[in-house]
């Protein structure tokens, strides 16, 4: 169907928290997505290994999304036996759904460093970007310029059938980060109400994040 929109939200999700989940619900609503796919990735080489294993990160996502009808996990990147790039994933999704409009979601901090992504021009050729605001995250010179250029040439609103539009989406601001959650756990501090209760239980049961990375 030409009017199908596929939403993809990539991240390390180490662990998944409400700073991912609330914006994800708002993204799905704003773009009327029947499903927004959360794509846990291999941690990029320059960030070092993830603190929790791939299996644990996917288990935690599954627990977090149990009661979220419009959110689902797509494990294709995490389950590959090699690090993968967003461009490879978008090529795959495009090949599987050639008619669909692809929407790739990211926080402003990720967009500020978008020029470090492998073949970012290719990403824009295949997908539209939706950038969500995040507390304390600001444009870089690169991202501010790119936004201005793309909006001048492509417009500021995503339309069906196109790619290369970059849209900024205001979402409820939650100053939560996985780094802070891992740090608190390593210091034996509570992380209750920063992430869903079943995820909290899973972290406790599996003794995750006890040592800071
Ligand atoms: P870390 O602290 O380990 O870097 P993180 O909390 O930033 O992790 P990621 O898995 O790296 O989480 O983020 C996945 C995506 O979610 C990124 O595009 C990021 O910008 C976005 N994101 C993460 N936390 C928030 C938040 N609190 N508000 C809005 N977007 C967020």
Describe the protein in words.
With 213 residues, the chain is of the alpha/beta class. Helix content is 37%, strand content 15%. It contains eight helices and six strands, in the order βαβαβαβααβαβαα. The protein has helices spanning 18-30, 54-64, 86-96, 108-112, 120-126, 141-154, 178-186, 197-205; strands spanning 5-11, 36-40, 71-73, 101-107, 128-132, 166-169. The chain has a six-stranded parallel beta sheet, with helices on both faces. Helix 2 runs antiparallel to helix 8 (197-205) and helix 3 (86-96) packs parallel to helix 5. The longest helix is centred in the C-terminal third of the chain and has 14 residues, at 141-154. It is globular and about 50 Å long. The model has no long low-confidence stretch (mean pLDDT 93). The protein binds adenosine-5'-triphosphate.
Q: How many H/I helical runs?
A: 8
Q: Segments where pLDDT lies below 50 for 5+ residues?
A: none
Query: Residue share in helices?
Result: 25-40%
Helix/strand/pairing category? alpha/beta
How many strand elements? Answer: 6
Query: Ends: how far apart?
Result: 45 Å
Strand content: 5-15%
Largest sheet: 6 strands, parallel
Shape: globular
Order of helices and strands: EHEHEHEHHEHEHH
Radius of gyration: 17 Å
Strand order of the largest sheet: 3-2-1-4-5-6
């Amino acid at each position: 169907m030409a009017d199908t929109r596929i939403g993809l939200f990539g991240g390390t999700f180490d662990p998944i928290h409400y700073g991912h989940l609330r914006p994800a619900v708002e993204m799905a609503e704003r773009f009327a997505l029947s499903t927004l796919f959360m794509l846990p990735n291999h941690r990029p080489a320059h960030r070092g290994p993830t603190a929790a294993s791939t299996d644990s990160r996917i288990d935690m996502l599954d627990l977090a999304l149990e009661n979220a009808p419009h959110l689902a996990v797509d494990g294709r990147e995490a389950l590959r036996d090699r690090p993968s790039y967003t461009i490879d994933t978008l090529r795959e999704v495009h090949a599987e759904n050639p008619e669909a409009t692809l929407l790739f979601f990211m926080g402003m901090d990720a967009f500020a460093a978008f020029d470090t992504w492998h073949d970012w021009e290719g990403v824009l050729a295949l997908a539209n970007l939706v950038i969500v605001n995040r507390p304390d995250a600001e444009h870089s010179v690169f991202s501010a310029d790119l936004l201005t250029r793309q909006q001048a040439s492509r417009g500021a609103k995503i339309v069906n059938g196109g790619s290369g539009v970059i849209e900024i989406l205001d979402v409820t601001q939650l100053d939560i980060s996985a780094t802070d959650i891992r740090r608190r756990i390593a210091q034996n501090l509570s992380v209750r109400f920063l992430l869903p209760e079943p995820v909290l239980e899973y972290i406790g049961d599996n003794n995750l994040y006890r040592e800071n990375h």
